Every structure is written in structure tokens, then in C-alpha cells.
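Hey team,

Filing this mostly as a record. A colleague (T.K.) asked me to run one chain through the structure pipeline before their review meeting, and I want the input and output archived in the tracker in case anyone asks later how it was produced. No errors, nothing strange. Just documentation.

Input sequence:
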Amino acid sequence: MAFISLNKSSDPTTQDHLRINRSAVLYVEASRPGLVGQTTIHLLGQDAVVSAVTDPVATVVSVLGGLVAADRHYLAPPPEDGISTVYIAPANVSYLRPNLPASPDFWYVRFVDGSELRIVAPLPAGL
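Output structure:
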């Protein structure tokens, strides 16, 4: 198994090291303003719990490699700071299904652990 080492955001004054199995990553996104850490990593089997790290999202995405970028879809109006880009690990996607007829169109991304994510259509290359 290939692990990556990141700095966990549990206490901004200390650096807790977090080793993540690359194959367990579902998707990665920049943390929302007001949250501790710069990047949020969603892992297999975590449900609503996520791993926040101090490393910038661009660094995490480049270290993981093989992720596909997509715009997150919101059922409510998008947050004031704009639409979030998510970086999806295709190996952990169980299936994709369109939400039709809908306007604007979006896709449900269902992961192998049963969790879901909505992304804006069209599907990005690689999914």
C-alpha cells in the first residue's frame, strides 16, 4: 500500500502527522472558510467525518495523483465564496448517474462505501 504523509489540522499550534492510504481517498476539496486546515480529505468509510490537513489542496492533489477535478453541485444556492472544486478518485467510484430531467443538469457520484457527491454536468474527462 502506498501511504502519503500530511499534517493533520487538529490543533493549529502543533503538527500532527497523518498517514493516509492513497487507495482509501474518495475525494479532496479545499476546506470551507472558518474551518481549521486548508484541505479536506474524504476517505472510505468515514461517513460525515473528514480529515482536515494543513497542506494546501494543490499540494495534496499533486501528491495523490490520478484525481479528476469537477465542480460540486449544491441543491441550495452556492456558498458566498463560490462553487467548490472537488478532486475525485475514479478508482473508488461505484457508479455515476445523471439527475434528469433537471436544470441545471448534475450527476450523482456514488462511491464504493455508499456515500454520494453531486457534481455539475457535463462529466469531466476521466469519469
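Quick notes for T.K.: The radius of gyration is 15 Å. Strands lie at 3-8, 16-21, 25-30, 39-43, 51-53, 68-71, 85-88, 93-98, 106-111, 116-120.
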